[in-house]
Structures are given as structure tokens and as C-alpha cells.
Write a structure and sequence with these properties.
The complex is a heterodimer of chains A (213) and B (453). Chain A has 213 residues and is of the alpha+beta class. Chain A is built from 3 helices and 8 strands. Chain A has an 8-stranded mixed β-barrel. The two termini of chain A are 33 Å apart. Chain B has 453 residues and is an all-alpha fold. Chain B has 16 helices and no strands. The chains are: A alpha+beta (213), B mainly alpha (453). At the A-B interface, helix 1, helix 2, helix 3, strand 7 and strand 8 of A face helix 6, helix 7, helix 8, helix 9 and helix 14 of B.
């Protein structure tokens, strides 16, 4: 489900969009003013409310906008993979792609590029061999990660740090939550493989930050 | 019918960090439907309180600088209000990080206000070197303030993000001031509004970092949820309304050249509020709201006009019209919210709003600037009540629109063990090897060569 009031940027965009569509209907304020002006013709001050839109010669504002990612490239480890939107499993965990060559963007959370932590997960391996994120543990600070939308918008993120957590002790709020900065966090499995439970004990998170020009 | 929080007393700063954490059985889950559907969790209260003070800071700072440039009589009183805002922020910081950190915060935070004033003073004196020095000091401030917050939040707020945010704040304030001095009032007011809006995101970021740092103290609640986002958005437009209204009334009675632009900014704020109403109650509802809401702005302008003309009958008439407005506005909101917000409570809240704005204006006209700006701060804070009440009502009325879970309860399962069985060595080992051979690219290459060696 698309978030209705998704983030602060969301509402301000919504607001300005609605504003732009308005056909400037004249409210009762104007009528009020007319009668007021008539009443005060003999005096000096007669204030009126001007309905005109404001125009700025320059507006300093946060221009960051998120994109819906469809392709992920990590040149330093030769990754070039499709990105599919993923959500939640029935148990509330983040879902993953069904195959080992594509990656999954957590669409319930943040979009890459907007303020907040966007997340893309990929398998470290399949049943028989390595998968798309097999090498992300090799990434080092400064490496570039490039995401592209289906419409061709491109954003570059810079690797800040790598961290490994036990799968059930990962700081979910910091990996998936809001932040003023625009971050993209990559997740894959690492650590011991628990054969009985068919899962890896740990998770590797690659933290990255939007590159600004 | 449950009585809503419209008239509730806002949390005092000392309550920012709740001392009693209710032992909800969250079972390690960070989200839960019950928490998400409330606009007043401990975390969202913190966010709202910080949003209040940060947005008010931006508003007061721009207005103080403009008064400084004009050398008006009320400058000291307004600067005093800005100082009180700093004290409130300091108290909030102290309640989270302790008294010593609060003192340190106040010193750094106050320094940037001082540099802004230096900038305004240098501008008034056409002193380019002084302006350059103030800008250089502001740049140093940005680094210092970012480092303080990164340390306080133990790296949850990144200095690089903070510096970008603080730079935008400084740039917006300086530009709003510069364009005011240049007589480009429209640009000035639009950038002032941007500066106010920008602070809501700063509040979201800081409250997220604090609640992540002390999750137990905030009952594991989240500062950013769809419901909290709605409240924050309404906080911003409602409080900004009060601030802009006071300034437009002052400009009106003083016959200032920026009256038109300031009134237009106030109406642009009304448009934003109406658009928010329309997004919930439909276009027709939004249009009806807008007409009623704008009528009260018109009556205030009537009051200002009558005051300027020393026309007591005109003032009485405007006040009577405001009384009528209160009833009409309350009836509209009671109907829209299906009486979740009772008309009687709404009328009481709206009467308070009207009284506070009239007081701020009358005191200004009488030259009692300190009282006037105290009334203004009160009016600004008061708007958080309708915001909290209305946002919770909207969430209750349309729960489906706010129930989205934006954070998973657990990490994804991103491995099937294929490589673990193959070589049965811990991934960390591979990590080390991988770092050494990063240039070789690809795990297979690495393995083959290792075997050959």
C-alpha cells in the first residue's frame, strides 16, 4: 500500500500539487473587504487582502526526490542487477526476491534519494552457488552504488561503512527508519549457515549516503 | 463519544522524556498497530515538541533580523522572544542529554543567532567586511553544531547530513533577510515559509535519532509514522498561521510596504491548510473550509483597519464577525469529523486563538512589545492543540490510510546456504580474502587462484 501521508516531503508535495490546481476561487474575504472599504472611505487606511500568488526570484528548498529503483549497479564488484519492489512476509519480516540474480527494494519504506533509509536486499547465495550480493562484503568506504529508475533517473550513493549483526539483533529502526539524510542500505546474509533452520545466523549491512554534487 | 485532545494541555518540556515506561509486551517488535494509529505516542510527542520549537526558531529569527534591519522599537522584545525559544530548546536538549550538554548546546546554538544579528547589523551599516565575517562565522558554527549533535546521538545523526541541513537553514535565513532588505518581499516571505517548513524535517530527524538512542524511554514508539507525519504537517501549517497572522496585522497597522506580501503568505498558508483538509474530506470540503477559514483572516484585517482609523465601531463589528466565525468554523469541523470533535470544544479553542491574536495585536499597538510577543508565542504554541486533535480525529476516521507498516519486524532471509555447504567456511574469512583480492572481481576467480597457488 502506498503511504498516504508518506513522509513530510510527501505532504508538502501533495499540498503544493493541490495548490497548483486551484482555479483561485474568490472567497468571502473579498466581499467582506468591499463592504469594509465602503465603510471606511472617509478615513485613511483601507487594507485589502490580495489574492495574488507569491513569486520568488529564488527559492532555497530541499530538492531531493526519491526514485523507484529498477536497476542497481556496483561497478567495483561488477554487479548489475534488476531491482524489484518487495514488501513484507506474513510474519512481518522483509520479503526477498524469488531468484538469486535480482535484488529487492523494500517499497513500504523509503525511496532511494528521499530523506530516510532506503533498503535493497539481495541473496548472498542460492542452493548451489553464489548469488547477486555474494561480493558486497568486499565493498569499502568510497565505493559507488548507482540506482536507476525505469524512467532513467540515476542516483549515486557512496559506501560509508559495513556492519554485521546477528539476524535477530539487527537495529531495524536504524536500517529502515527515517533520517534527515538520504541513505541506501544494502542487506545480505553472512555468518554461519544454520542447516536445521535453513538460514544464515548473521546479516551484513552496507550503509551508503547519497552523493551530492 | 470520546472527547479528543483538542483542549488538552500540551506536554511541558520536562516531560519530553517520559520517566515511566509502560511495559507493553512488544516482544522485540519495533512496530505495532496500536502504536502506529496514535498521533500522540511518546516519540511523536517529542517530534511535535521539537518541531514546534525549531519552526518557531526559524520564524522568530527571520522576523527579528528584519526588525533589526529596520531598527524598529520592538526589536529588543522580539529578540527576547527568540532567546526564550532558545531557552526552551535548551531545556529539551537537557531533558534528554543532561544539564551539561544543555549548556553546551545553548552556547553553540546562541552563537549562530549572534552571527545572524552580526550579519543584519553589518547589512544596515553597508559593511561588506562585517557581512563576510558573519558568514565565515556561520560556516564555523555549522561544523561545530553538527559535531555536537553527532556526538550526542552517538553517530545516529551523521555530521555530513547535519552540515547539509544546517547549511540550508543558514542559507534560507540569510536569503529571506537579504531579499527583504532589497525590497523583494515576495521572495523574502516565500523563503521564510521554506525555512519554517525545513525545520520540520530537522525535527523528524532529531526525534528519530533520540528515540532510536533511548527506545525504552519512548516505549519503543516511532517518531515517524503515517499518523505522526499527519500531525507534524498540521502542526506546521497551524502554528505558521498564528505567526504569519501576527506579522501581517503589524504590517497592516504600520502601513509597511511588505503588508501585501505578508498577507499573501498568510493566505498561501491557508491554501496549504485547505489542501490538507481537501485531501481528507474531498475537494468540496476543502473549498468550504477555505471559505470559512479565510473569512476570519478578513475579519482580523477589518480589525486592523478599524484600529488604524481609531474606529471603535469598526473594531466592535470585526469582533462580532469573529464571534460568528468561531461558531461557523466549529460547526464545520464538528460535522466533517462526525462530531468526533465536539462543537463546544472547538468553539472554546477557536475563541482562545482569536483572543490571543487580538491580544498580541492590541499590545503591539499599545507599545507593550514584551507582552505582545509573549502573546504571540502563546498563540503559536496553542495551535498545536487543534493540530493534535484534528490529526488524531482524521486517523480515527480513516484508519486504513494510516495503517501501513513502514518498517519490517525482521531482517530478510537472503541466503540459501549454497556457498556455505560448498566450502563450509565462515563468511568473515571470505570477507578478509575478498578485501585483499577486491580487484580480481568475482568469487570464482578468487577461489580458482587460491587453489592454483
Amino acid at each position: 500500500m502506498k503511504k498516504w501521508f508518506g513522509g513530510i516531503l510527501g505532504i508538502s508535495l501533495l499540498l503544493s500539487a493541490c495548490q497548483a490546481e486551484e482555479g483561485a476561487p474568490e472567497p468571502s474575504v473579498e466581499k467582506q473587504e468591499v463592504s469594509n472599504m465602503e465603510a471606511s472611505t472617509s478615513t485613511k487606511t483601507a487594507l485589502t487582502l490580495n489574492e495574488g500568488q507569491l513569486n520568488a526570484s529564488k527559492l532555497i528548498k530541499d530538492e531531493r526526490q526519491g526514485i523507484s529503483p529498477s536497476r542497481l549497479r556496483i561497478p567495483s564488484i561488477n554487479v548489475d542487477a534488476p531491482v524489484n519492489a518487495t514488501g513484507l512476509l506474513d510474519n512481518g519480516d522483509m520479503d526477498v526476491p524469488n531468484d538469486i540474480v535480482s535484488t529487492g527494494w523494500f517499497e513500504n519504506g523509503y525511496m532511494p534519494g528521499e530523506p530516510g533509509n532506503a533498503v535493497i536486499a539481495g541473496h548472498v547465495d542460492g542452493k548451489k552457488g553464489p548469488a547477486v550480493f555474494y561480493n558486497i562484503g568486499k565493498l569499502t568506504k568510497g565505493d559507488e552504488i548507482i540506482v536507476t529508475s525505469a524512467e532513467g533517473q540515476e542516483l549515486t550513493f557512496i559506501v560509508e561503512q559495513l556492519k554485521i549483526y546477528p539476524f535477530d539483533e539487527s537495529p531495524l529502526r536504524e536500517i529502515f527508519g527515517f533520517s534527515y539524510g538520504s541513505h541506501l542500505n544494502l542487506i545480505t546474509c553472512t555468518g554461519e549457515y544454520n542447516k536445521n533452520g535453513s538460514y544464515y545466523e548473521d546479516r551484513l549491512v552496507v550503509y551508503t549516503t547519497l552523493k551530492t554534487t | 463519544m470520546k472527547k479528543r485532545t483538542l483542549l488538552a494541555i500540551p506536554l511541558s518540556m520536562s516531560l519530553l522524556v517520559p520517566t515511566v515506561a509502560f511495559a507493553h509486551g512488544h516482544e522485540g517488535k519495533v512496530t505495532g498497530v496500536a502504536t502506529e494509529m496514535s498521533v500522540s505516542t511518546p516519540a511523536s510527542e517529542l517530534r511535535s515538541a521539537l518541531g514546534h520549537l525549531f519552526t518557531e526558531h526559524a520564524f522568530l529569527a527571520v522576523e527579528t533580523l528584519k526588525k533589526g534591519a529596520d531598527g524598529t522599537e520592538d526589536f529588543d522584545a522580539l529578540a527576547g522572544a527568540l532567546g526564550q525559544n532558545t531557552d526552551d530548546l535548551t531545556e529539551a536538549v537537557s531533558s534528554v542529554y543532561g544539564k551539561e550538554a544543555g549548556i553546551q548546546f545553548k552556547e553553540i546554538w546562541s552563537s549562530h543567532i549572534g552571527y545572524f544579528v552580526d550579519y543584519a547589523t553589518a547589512t544596515a551599516a553597508s559593511d561588506q567586511a562585517g557581512k563576510d565575517q558573519a558568514v565565515a562565522n556561520l560556516e564555523k558554527y555549522i561544523v561545530e553544531q553538527a559535531a555536537f549533535l553527532e556526538t550526542a546521538t552517538e553517530g545516529r545523526l551523521k555530521a555530513v547530513d547535519l552540515e547539509a541541513g544546517l547549511k540550508m537553514h543558514v542559507d534560507q535565513l540569510v536569503w529571506a533577510f537579504d531579499s527583504y532588505v532589497a525590497g523583494d518581499y515576495e521572495t523574502s516571505y516565500m523563503n521564510e515559509r521554506e525555512a519554517i517548513g525545513h525545520m520540520t524535517m530537522v525535527a523528524a530527524g532529531l526525534s528519530t535519532a533520540i528515540t532510536n538512542q533511548f527506545p525504552d524511554k519512548f516505549e519503543n514508539s516511532l517518531a515517524v509514522t503515517p499518523a505522526a507525519d499527519l500531525r507534524s504537517a498540521l502542526d506546521q501549517v497551524f502554528t505558521e498561521h498564528a505567526g504569519l497572522a501576527v506579522m501581517a496585522m503589524q504590517n497592516g497597522v504600520d502601513g509597511d510596504p511588505d503588508f501585501d506580501a505578508s498577507a499573501a503568505a498568510l493566505l498561501a498558508n491557508a491554501d496549504d491548510l485547505s489542501a490538507a483538509v481537501a485531501s481528507v474530506y474531498g475537494e468540496e470540503g476543502g473549498a468550504a473550509f477555505k471559505e470559512i477559514w479565510k473569512s476570519h483572516i478578513g475579519y482580523f484585517v477589518d480589525y486592523v483597519t478599524a484600529t488604524a482609523n481609531d474606529d471603535q465601531a469598526g473594531k466592535d463589528k470585526a469582533m462580532k464577525e469573529l464571534d460568528g466565525y468561531v461558531v461557523e468554523q466549529a460547526a464545520f469541523l464538528a460535522t466533517a469529523t462526525e462530531d468526533r470533535l465536539p462543537a463546544a470544544d472547538l468553539e472554546a479553542g477557536l475563541n482562545e486563538h482569536v483572543d490571543q491574536l487580538l491580544a498580541a495585536f492590541d499590545q503591539y499597538v499599545a507599545g507593550d512589545y514584551e507582552a505582545s510577543y509573549a502573546s504571540m508565542r502563546e498563540a503559536y504554541a496553542h495551535m498545536l492543540m487543534p493540530s493534535a486533535g484534528l490529526s488524531q480525529t482524521i486517523v480515527d476516521q480513516f484508519p486504513d490510510k494510516f495503517s501501513g507498516q513502514s518498517m519490517p519486524d525482521g531482517m530478510p532471509k537472503t541466503g540459501m546456504g549454497g556457498t556455505a555447504e560448498q566450502d563450509s567456511m565462515p563468511y568473515e574469512w571470505f570477507l578478509l580474502g575478498g578485501l585483499l583480492a577486491a580487484a580480481l572481481g568475482g568469487a570464482f576467480t578468487l577461489r580458482r587462484r587460491s587453489n592454483e597457488a
